[in-house]
Write a structure and sequence with these properties.
With 222 residues, the protein is α/β, with parallel strands linked by helices. It has helices spanning 17-25, 34-44, 58-70, 91-100, 113-119, 139-147, 162-173, 197-205, and strands at 2-4, 28-31, 50-52, 75-78, 104-106, 127-132, 152-157, 178-183, 191-196, 213-217. The protein folds into two domains: 2-106, Tetrapyrrole methylase, N-terminal domain (Cobalt-precorrin-4 Transmethylase, domain 1); 113-217, 2-Layer Sandwich (Methyltransferase, Cobalt-precorrin-4 Transmethylase, Domain 2), CATH 3.30.950.10. The strands form two sheets. It has a five-stranded parallel beta sheet, sandwiched between helices. A five-stranded mixed beta sheet has the order 6-7-10-8-9. Helix 6 links the parallel strand 6 (127-132) and strand 7 (152-157). The N and C termini lie far apart (43 Å). The structure holds S-adenosylmethionine.
């Protein structure tokens, strides 16, 4: 069995009792960065062996991992924060498990876009998740596609690129489109700012932007 296990995106209280039990019970935990996960394991008294599984080795190791799963070893997959597979490694392994008949389960748990969307005050009955925009090639095409969507869309963005991204969104969506910057979710300095793109750009221009960010933008008709 492969368990996909969400881990906290900031607040360590956001790990579930079931996640802790599974992480203790499996034979191996595949981790994006074993040093980051070791700190989490130390905090919760977990001593299960950690093995690297990240964007730079997943193509090489995925079939071997599935061989081990088929031979009977239960494993868990975790990323540095949140749910594996959501803008993090996980899809390749999940696909290989599905294709080769390994039972797979994902525990419900922490992920950044759901609390951001739910607290943004923007329509969340229908939405599009786009993760990180491409940095160069294809960025403008993607932005234009997003701007034309009739429903809310969700982006992950780094604090260093927030102002540039807001500028680009103003260019394709117009200054009055409503949006939300959700920052440092579940942490001490958690912040939600919902307003027009123009207002958000002015607000975040006046201070140093720090921390992790989810950007939610209302759809064209909203
Ligand atoms: N797997 C994660 C998930 O389930 O949300 C996402 C991992 S992705 C590499 C990291 C990005 O998620 C950050 O750059 C930020 O955009 C967003 N993120 C993660 N933690 C966050 C937090 N506490 N507050 C706001 N955004 C966060």
């Amino acid at each position: 069995m492969l368990y996909i296990v969400p881990t906290p995106i900031g607040n360590l209280e956001d790990i579930t009792l079931r996640a802790l039990r599974i992480l203790k019970e499996v034979k191996v935990v595949l981790a994006e960065d074993t040093r980051t996960s070791k700190r989490l394991f130390d905090h919760f008294g977990i001593s299960t062996p950690l093995r690297s599984f990240h964007a730079h080795n997943e193509h090489q190791v995925v079939e071997r991992v599935v061989d081990e799963l088929l031979a009977g070893a239960d494993m868990a997959l975790i990323s540095d924060a949140g749910t594996p597979g959501i803008s993090d490694p996980g899809f390749l392994l999940a696909r290989a498990c599905v294709q080769r008949g390994v039972p797979i389960s994902c525990l419900p748990g922490a992920t950044a876009f759901v609390p951001a969307l739910a607290a943004s005050g923007l329509p969340c009955d229908t939405f599009h998740f786009d993760g990180f925009l491409p940095h160069k090639k294809g960025r403008q095409t993607r932005l234009r596609m997003l701007a034309a969507l009739p429903h809310t869309f969700v982006l992950y963005e780094s604090p260093f690129r927030l102002l540039k991204c807001l500028d680009e969104l103003i260019a394709v969506c117009g200054p009055d489109r409503m949006a939300c910057v959700a920052r440092e979710l579940s942490k001490l300095h958690e912040e939600f700012q919902t307003n027009t793109l123009e207002w958000l750009k002015n607000y975040f221009s006046q201070k140093e932007v720090k921390g992790e960010i989810v950007l939610i933008v209302a759809g064209k008709s909203d």
